[in-house]
Amino acid sequence: MLASDRSQIRIDNAQVRLIAARATGTVHLMSDRLFLPIFILLWSSGYVVGALAIEVADPLPLLAVRFTLASLVLVPLALRHGRWRGAPFGRLAVVGLLLQVVQFGGIYGGFALGVPAGLSALVMLGLAPLVTTGLAIGSGQEHGDVRLWSGLAVGVVGVALSLAPELGDARVGVGVILTLVGMLGLAGGTVLQKRWVGAADMRVSAAVQNATAGIIVVPLAAAFGGHVEMGAQLVLSVAWIAWGMGIVSLLALVSVLRHHAASAVAALLLVVPAVTAIASAITLGDPLHPATLAGMLVAMLGVGAVLRRETTVAPPAPHRLHAVTLAS
Question: Do residues 277 and 163 touch, judged by C-beta distance below 8 A?
Protein backbone atom coordinates (compact mmCIF):
# COMPACT_ATOMS: atom_id res chain seq x y z
CA MET A 1 0.00 0.00 0.00
CA LEU A 2 1.35 3.43 -0.93
CA ALA A 3 2.05 6.05 1.75
CA SER A 4 -0.57 8.33 0.20
CA ASP A 5 -3.17 5.55 0.49
CA ARG A 6 -2.35 5.01 4.18
CA SER A 7 -2.63 8.74 4.83
CA GLN A 8 -6.02 8.83 3.13
CA ILE A 9 -7.26 5.91 5.23
CA ARG A 10 -6.16 7.70 8.41
CA ILE A 11 -7.91 10.89 7.34
CA ASP A 12 -11.07 8.94 6.55
CA ASN A 13 -10.94 7.25 9.98
CA ALA A 14 -10.65 10.61 11.70
CA GLN A 15 -13.63 11.91 9.73
CA VAL A 16 -15.69 8.86 10.69
CA ARG A 17 -14.93 9.46 14.40
CA LEU A 18 -15.89 13.11 14.04
CA ILE A 19 -19.23 12.25 12.39
CA ALA A 20 -19.95 9.61 15.04
CA ALA A 21 -19.20 12.05 17.84
CA ARG A 22 -21.52 14.65 16.35
CA ALA A 23 -24.25 12.03 16.04
CA THR A 24 -24.04 11.30 19.78
CA GLY A 25 -24.10 14.95 20.78
CA THR A 26 -20.37 15.41 21.40
CA VAL A 27 -19.23 18.09 18.99
CA HIS A 28 -15.97 19.53 20.32
CA LEU A 29 -13.02 17.16 20.03
CA MET A 30 -9.45 17.32 21.33
CA SER A 31 -6.33 15.54 20.12
CA ASP A 32 -4.08 13.58 22.49
CA ARG A 33 -1.45 16.31 22.42
CA LEU A 34 -3.84 18.71 24.15
CA PHE A 35 -6.10 16.29 26.01
CA LEU A 36 -3.49 14.20 27.84
CA PRO A 37 -1.69 17.14 29.55
CA ILE A 38 -5.09 18.48 30.65
CA PHE A 39 -5.96 15.02 31.99
CA ILE A 40 -2.73 14.96 34.04
CA LEU A 41 -3.37 18.45 35.45
CA LEU A 42 -6.94 17.53 36.38
CA TRP A 43 -5.82 14.38 38.16
CA SER A 44 -3.06 16.25 40.01
CA SER A 45 -5.49 18.90 41.23
CA GLY A 46 -7.55 16.26 43.02
CA TYR A 47 -4.78 15.51 45.52
CA VAL A 48 -4.08 19.15 46.32
CA VAL A 49 -7.73 20.17 46.64
CA GLY A 50 -8.53 16.98 48.54
CA ALA A 51 -5.83 17.81 51.10
CA LEU A 52 -7.32 21.31 51.48
CA ALA A 53 -10.80 19.88 51.96
CA ILE A 54 -9.67 17.41 54.63
CA GLU A 55 -8.36 20.33 56.69
CA VAL A 56 -11.97 21.42 57.28
CA ALA A 57 -14.00 18.20 56.96
CA ASP A 58 -13.77 14.52 57.87
CA PRO A 59 -13.64 11.95 55.05
CA LEU A 60 -17.15 10.47 55.35
CA PRO A 61 -19.19 13.70 55.17
CA LEU A 62 -16.80 15.05 52.53
CA LEU A 63 -17.27 12.01 50.31
CA ALA A 64 -21.03 11.99 50.90
CA VAL A 65 -21.31 15.59 49.70
CA ARG A 66 -18.97 14.93 46.78
CA PHE A 67 -20.95 11.99 45.42
CA THR A 68 -24.31 13.68 46.04
CA LEU A 69 -23.40 16.88 44.23
CA ALA A 70 -21.87 14.99 41.33
CA SER A 71 -24.94 12.75 41.03
CA LEU A 72 -27.30 15.75 41.03
CA VAL A 73 -25.63 16.90 37.81
CA LEU A 74 -24.75 13.59 36.17
CA VAL A 75 -27.99 11.65 36.65
CA PRO A 76 -30.28 14.25 34.98
CA LEU A 77 -27.69 14.73 32.25
CA ALA A 78 -27.52 11.00 31.58
CA LEU A 79 -31.31 10.64 31.71
CA ARG A 80 -31.71 13.34 29.09
CA HIS A 81 -28.80 12.66 26.75
CA GLY A 82 -27.35 9.25 27.65
CA ARG A 83 -27.78 5.95 25.85
CA TRP A 84 -29.16 3.65 28.56
CA ARG A 85 -30.18 0.69 26.42
CA GLY A 86 -27.87 -2.24 27.02
CA ALA A 87 -25.86 -0.44 29.71
CA PRO A 88 -24.22 -2.97 32.09
CA PHE A 89 -25.56 -1.44 35.32
CA GLY A 90 -24.23 -4.12 37.65
CA ARG A 91 -20.74 -3.88 36.25
CA LEU A 92 -20.85 -0.08 36.27
CA ALA A 93 -21.81 -0.23 39.94
CA VAL A 94 -18.83 -2.49 40.74
CA VAL A 95 -16.49 -0.13 38.87
CA GLY A 96 -18.03 2.80 40.75
CA LEU A 97 -17.44 1.03 44.05
CA LEU A 98 -13.75 0.60 43.22
CA LEU A 99 -13.00 3.88 41.43
CA GLN A 100 -15.07 6.09 43.72
CA VAL A 101 -15.63 4.57 47.16
CA VAL A 102 -12.48 2.47 47.60
CA GLN A 103 -10.09 4.83 45.82
CA PHE A 104 -11.21 8.11 47.37
CA GLY A 105 -12.10 6.60 50.71
CA GLY A 106 -8.50 5.41 50.93
CA ILE A 107 -7.04 8.71 49.75
CA TYR A 108 -9.10 10.95 52.04
CA GLY A 109 -8.70 8.55 54.95
CA GLY A 110 -4.94 8.80 54.47
CA PHE A 111 -5.12 12.60 54.32
CA ALA A 112 -7.06 12.68 57.59
CA LEU A 113 -4.33 10.60 59.27
CA GLY A 114 -1.55 12.90 58.13
CA VAL A 115 -0.39 11.48 54.79
CA PRO A 116 0.83 14.46 52.69
CA ALA A 117 -0.66 15.04 49.23
CA GLY A 118 2.67 14.33 47.53
CA LEU A 119 3.21 11.02 49.32
CA SER A 120 -0.41 10.03 48.65
CA ALA A 121 0.13 10.63 44.94
CA LEU A 122 3.37 8.62 45.08
CA VAL A 123 1.72 5.62 46.76
CA MET A 124 -1.36 5.78 44.53
CA LEU A 125 0.25 6.45 41.20
CA GLY A 126 3.73 5.06 41.70
CA LEU A 127 2.40 1.58 42.45
CA ALA A 128 -0.90 1.62 40.52
CA PRO A 129 0.76 1.35 37.07
CA LEU A 130 2.52 -1.88 38.08
CA VAL A 131 -0.63 -3.37 39.62
CA THR A 132 -2.83 -2.20 36.73
CA THR A 133 -0.48 -3.63 34.13
CA GLY A 134 -0.18 -6.90 36.03
CA LEU A 135 -3.97 -7.21 36.23
CA ALA A 136 -4.42 -6.31 32.57
CA ILE A 137 -1.86 -8.92 31.48
CA GLY A 138 -3.16 -11.52 33.92
CA SER A 139 -6.73 -11.08 32.63
CA GLY A 140 -5.61 -11.43 29.01
CA GLN A 141 -6.40 -7.84 27.97
CA GLU A 142 -2.79 -7.01 27.14
CA HIS A 143 0.50 -8.72 26.41
CA GLY A 144 3.56 -7.71 28.39
CA ASP A 145 7.05 -7.31 26.97
CA VAL A 146 10.42 -5.95 27.99
CA ARG A 147 9.70 -2.50 26.59
CA LEU A 148 6.49 -2.15 28.60
CA TRP A 149 7.98 -3.21 31.91
CA SER A 150 11.16 -1.20 31.28
CA GLY A 151 9.14 1.94 30.60
CA LEU A 152 7.06 1.44 33.74
CA ALA A 153 10.18 0.77 35.81
CA VAL A 154 11.79 4.01 34.60
CA GLY A 155 8.58 5.87 35.40
CA VAL A 156 8.40 4.46 38.91
CA VAL A 157 12.06 5.38 39.53
CA GLY A 158 11.24 8.91 38.43
CA VAL A 159 8.27 9.06 40.79
CA ALA A 160 10.35 7.80 43.73
CA LEU A 161 13.14 10.26 42.92
CA SER A 162 10.78 13.21 42.66
CA LEU A 163 9.24 12.60 46.08
CA ALA A 164 12.17 11.03 47.95
CA PRO A 165 12.75 14.19 50.08
CA GLU A 166 9.19 13.93 51.39
CA LEU A 167 9.39 10.31 52.50
CA GLY A 168 11.52 11.02 55.54
CA ASP A 169 8.98 13.46 57.00
CA ALA A 170 5.80 11.60 56.09
CA ARG A 171 3.60 10.04 58.73
CA VAL A 172 3.35 6.31 58.13
CA GLY A 173 1.14 3.60 59.52
CA VAL A 174 -2.59 3.29 59.11
CA GLY A 175 -2.77 6.32 56.80
CA VAL A 176 -0.40 4.75 54.30
CA ILE A 177 -2.27 1.43 54.54
CA LEU A 178 -5.52 3.22 53.70
CA THR A 179 -3.80 4.90 50.77
CA LEU A 180 -2.61 1.50 49.55
CA VAL A 181 -6.21 0.26 49.69
CA GLY A 182 -7.21 3.29 47.61
CA MET A 183 -4.49 2.38 45.10
CA LEU A 184 -5.95 -1.11 44.72
CA GLY A 185 -9.34 0.47 44.05
CA LEU A 186 -7.85 2.65 41.31
CA ALA A 187 -5.96 -0.24 39.70
CA GLY A 188 -8.85 -2.70 39.83
CA GLY A 189 -11.39 -0.12 38.70
CA THR A 190 -9.22 0.96 35.78
CA VAL A 191 -8.86 -2.58 34.47
CA LEU A 192 -12.56 -3.40 34.90
CA GLN A 193 -13.61 -0.10 33.31
CA LYS A 194 -11.53 -1.02 30.26
CA ARG A 195 -12.61 -4.68 30.17
CA TRP A 196 -16.27 -4.53 31.20
CA VAL A 197 -17.76 -1.17 30.33
CA GLY A 198 -15.43 0.49 27.82
CA ALA A 199 -18.21 0.85 25.23
CA ALA A 200 -20.84 2.20 27.63
CA ASP A 201 -22.05 5.78 27.19
CA MET A 202 -19.66 8.01 29.17
CA ARG A 203 -22.49 10.02 30.74
CA VAL A 204 -24.33 6.89 31.86
CA SER A 205 -21.10 5.39 33.17
CA ALA A 206 -20.25 8.46 35.26
CA ALA A 207 -23.83 8.82 36.54
CA VAL A 208 -24.13 5.18 37.66
CA GLN A 209 -20.70 5.20 39.29
CA ASN A 210 -21.35 8.35 41.33
CA ALA A 211 -24.89 7.32 42.24
CA THR A 212 -23.62 3.94 43.44
CA ALA A 213 -20.95 5.63 45.55
CA GLY A 214 -23.55 8.00 47.02
CA ILE A 215 -25.90 5.16 47.91
CA ILE A 216 -23.07 3.49 49.84
CA VAL A 217 -21.43 6.50 51.51
CA VAL A 218 -24.37 8.79 52.39
CA PRO A 219 -25.96 6.33 54.87
CA LEU A 220 -22.54 5.74 56.45
CA ALA A 221 -22.01 9.49 56.86
CA ALA A 222 -25.49 9.85 58.38
CA ALA A 223 -24.82 7.01 60.81
CA PHE A 224 -21.31 7.93 61.92
CA GLY A 225 -21.26 11.69 61.28
CA GLY A 226 -18.05 13.68 61.19
CA HIS A 227 -16.50 17.08 61.74
CA VAL A 228 -17.25 19.84 59.20
CA GLU A 229 -16.16 23.50 59.32
CA MET A 230 -18.30 25.67 57.08
CA GLY A 231 -16.43 28.36 55.17
CA ALA A 232 -15.03 29.39 51.80
CA GLN A 233 -12.28 26.75 51.88
CA LEU A 234 -14.85 23.96 52.32
CA VAL A 235 -17.28 25.30 49.72
CA LEU A 236 -14.65 25.85 47.03
CA SER A 237 -12.88 22.57 47.73
CA VAL A 238 -16.09 20.53 47.70
CA ALA A 239 -17.25 22.23 44.50
CA TRP A 240 -14.06 21.21 42.73
CA ILE A 241 -13.81 17.65 44.01
CA ALA A 242 -17.53 17.08 43.30
CA TRP A 243 -17.84 18.69 39.89
CA GLY A 244 -14.27 19.05 38.68
CA MET A 245 -13.03 15.65 39.86
CA GLY A 246 -16.32 13.79 40.19
CA ILE A 247 -17.54 14.77 36.73
CA VAL A 248 -14.86 16.26 34.47
CA SER A 249 -11.94 14.06 35.58
CA LEU A 250 -14.05 10.90 35.62
CA LEU A 251 -15.32 11.56 32.09
CA ALA A 252 -11.74 12.29 31.04
CA LEU A 253 -10.57 8.95 32.49
CA VAL A 254 -13.35 7.06 30.70
CA SER A 255 -12.44 8.81 27.43
CA VAL A 256 -8.71 8.08 27.77
CA LEU A 257 -9.42 4.41 28.54
CA ARG A 258 -11.46 4.18 25.35
CA HIS A 259 -8.51 5.27 23.27
CA HIS A 260 -5.54 3.76 25.14
CA ALA A 261 -4.56 0.51 26.81
CA ALA A 262 -4.98 0.33 30.58
CA SER A 263 -1.19 0.07 31.01
CA ALA A 264 -0.65 3.25 28.96
CA VAL A 265 -3.22 5.16 31.03
CA ALA A 266 -1.55 3.93 34.22
CA ALA A 267 1.82 5.07 32.86
CA LEU A 268 0.38 8.53 32.18
CA LEU A 269 -0.53 8.79 35.85
CA LEU A 270 3.15 8.37 36.77
CA VAL A 271 3.60 12.06 35.89
CA VAL A 272 0.93 13.12 38.39
CA PRO A 273 2.93 12.77 41.66
CA ALA A 274 5.63 15.21 40.56
CA VAL A 275 3.03 17.67 39.28
CA THR A 276 1.17 17.28 42.58
CA ALA A 277 4.37 17.99 44.53
CA ILE A 278 4.90 21.21 42.57
CA ALA A 279 1.29 22.28 43.02
CA SER A 280 1.44 21.43 46.73
CA ALA A 281 4.49 23.67 47.12
CA ILE A 282 2.55 26.56 45.61
CA THR A 283 -0.82 26.09 47.29
CA LEU A 284 -0.08 24.23 50.54
CA GLY A 285 3.40 25.56 51.26
CA ASP A 286 4.99 22.12 51.12
CA PRO A 287 8.76 22.26 50.45
CA LEU A 288 9.83 21.67 46.83
CA HIS A 289 13.13 19.87 46.31
CA PRO A 290 15.20 19.99 43.08
CA ALA A 291 14.88 16.20 43.00
CA THR A 292 11.18 16.71 42.25
CA LEU A 293 11.95 18.34 38.92
CA ALA A 294 14.59 15.75 38.06
CA GLY A 295 12.23 12.93 38.93
CA MET A 296 9.48 14.47 36.82
CA LEU A 297 11.75 14.37 33.78
CA VAL A 298 12.67 10.73 34.44
CA ALA A 299 9.00 9.78 34.88
CA MET A 300 8.13 11.49 31.59
CA LEU A 301 10.82 9.43 29.83
CA GLY A 302 9.24 6.24 31.15
CA VAL A 303 5.75 7.37 30.16
CA GLY A 304 6.97 8.28 26.69
CA ALA A 305 8.48 4.81 26.25
CA VAL A 306 5.18 3.13 27.15
CA LEU A 307 3.14 5.38 24.87
CA ARG A 308 5.57 4.85 21.97
CA ARG A 309 5.32 1.11 22.53
CA GLU A 310 1.52 1.33 22.41
CA THR A 311 1.72 3.15 19.08
CA THR A 312 4.07 0.48 17.70
CA VAL A 313 1.94 -2.45 18.92
CA ALA A 314 -1.37 -1.01 17.67
CA PRO A 315 -0.77 1.78 15.12
CA PRO A 316 -3.49 4.39 15.59
CA ALA A 317 -4.72 7.22 13.47
CA PRO A 318 -2.25 10.10 13.74
CA HIS A 319 -4.34 12.05 16.25
CA ARG A 320 -6.73 10.27 18.59
CA LEU A 321 -9.70 12.50 19.30
CA HIS A 322 -11.51 12.86 22.60
CA ALA A 323 -15.05 14.19 22.88
CA VAL A 324 -15.26 16.87 25.56
CA THR A 325 -18.76 18.28 25.19
CA LEU A 326 -21.24 16.59 27.53
CA ALA A 327 -24.45 17.18 25.63
CA SER A 328 -25.84 18.59 22.41
Answer: yes
| Prediction pTM value | 0.72
Beta strands per DSSP E along the chain: 29-31, 321-323
Residues 6 or more apart whose CB falls under 8 angstroms from that of 307 comprise: 260, 264, 267, 268
On whether the CB atoms of residues 96 and 265 are closer than 8 A, the answer is no
| pLDDT tens figures, 90-122 | 999 999 999 999 999 999 999 888 888 877 887
Domain boundaries, the chain: 33-320
- Cβ atoms of residues 303 and 272 within 8 Å: no
What is the number of other CB atoms lying within 10 angstroms of the CB of residue 248?
18
Q: Which of 48, 53, 93 minimizes the C-alpha distance to 196?
A: 93
The torsion angles phi and psi of 113, rounded to 5 degrees, stand at -95, 10
Element of type H or E holding 4? helix 3-23
Sign of CA dihedral 44, 57, 106, 104: negative
